[in-house]
Amino acid sequence: MVLDLFAGPGGWSHALAVLGVRDIGLEWDEWACKTRAAQGQLTIRTDVAMYPVWPFLGKTTGLIASPPCQAWSMAGKRLGLLDQPLVHQAVADLATGRDTREQLLGACRDARSLLAAEPMRYLHALNQHGQPEWVAMEEVPDVLPLWRQYAAILRSWGYSVWSGILNAADYGVPQTRRRAILLASRTRTAEPPLPTHAKAAEPESLFGPGRAKWVSMAEALGWGATDRPGPTVCAGGGPGGGPEPFPSGSRKTLSDARARGTWSPRSDTDVVPAFHRESSGKTAGHCSRETRPTGVAAPSLAPDARRWAWSLRSNNQANATVRRLSEPAGTLFFGHRANECTWVADTTAGRLEGEQQPVPDPIRITAREAGILQSFPAEYPWRGNKGQQFSQIGNAVPPRLAAHLLAPHLNKPVNPEDFTLAA
Length: 423
Description:
Blueprint: E1 2-5, H1 11-18, E2 23-27, H2 30-38, E3 42-45, E4 62-65, H3 79-94, H4 101-107, H5 118-127, E5 134-139, H6 144-156, E6 160-167, E7 178-185, E8 197-198, E9 212-213, H7 217-221, H8 254-260, E10 270-275, E11 287-292, E12 309-313, E13 322-324, E14 342-346, E15 363-364, H9 367-373, H10 386-395, H11 399-410
Parallel strand pairs: 1-2, 1-4, 2-3, 4-5, 8-9
Antiparallel strand pairs: 5-7, 6-7, 10-11, 12-13, 12-14, 14-15
């Protein structure tokens, strides 16, 4: 079996399913377990730190671990950095079969910090049976020193190991999400997968197969290049019930924006609203989209016509990451900031000289959109209210990145067509 510790809503599991393999996930969060169940993934709802290892002895081919990142993430208080010496001590002790977790936990500033040592408890026990054959682990970049400690221990047990930082955008994820990765194998040389994408497209040459341009949010969401509308918002709570964690003032929908005449989609080419003449067979004043090549003069517009370029702002802090639709998203993180990740209008793009335009209201991102930007399928069955869904999405491993990490261990190819995002 493939054992997935801290399995979350199924980022690793979905990647494995695409590759034709099933895993069994250990997960505590109620709504992540319900999402996994809706997706048909095998799950044991349990505390990874309390669950025994003996049921997996002699049966485990691969071990996956993505410990909770809240203690280490820049989105939180980062008390995990202060606890790091204690976590290193726990890993060193567990690698020799000594369980000092209870004593060390009492000294931790964040109880979640020590969860990063849990994979070693499983690895030590499994190693006594010559397993697992391979290991894949993922965390925020600040955990890399801990992964290097794991790597040194695994090498002493006969594994080939690689650890380092990878950018999810380099593997076709529409998000520049950087993560600390550890890969280990008993049967092959552990190394990172070759990137398939780059910030600027690279043609095939004698030195490599070439790389496509990073996948943009517009491309992933299916906006701009088709007749599909731009950002959409659903009001009210999710299927899990409970209050919606958004202030009432942020309940702005695209239908509202359209009614006010303050919205139009935009792609890498200049997309502007055009007003049809009565002879076109449509009612005068009907708004449609028109694409014009760069450098070609814009057609004359009615005085109330508007042009916008939408960008995604990660939160409401002054240093928030802001990316245009023609780029990948920045790293998505939610939790208590779920109501701050919004689509904002860039009113400078496409503006005529001297033209004054009112600034449209921000439109908050939906769970469906956020899931797509994590490379989940558009109709992935997220469970819980919106806050619970956002929390799952922000903590998940992007399935497309996971597939590239796992495919070599499974001797499986990654087919990009298996990760079509927008429906």
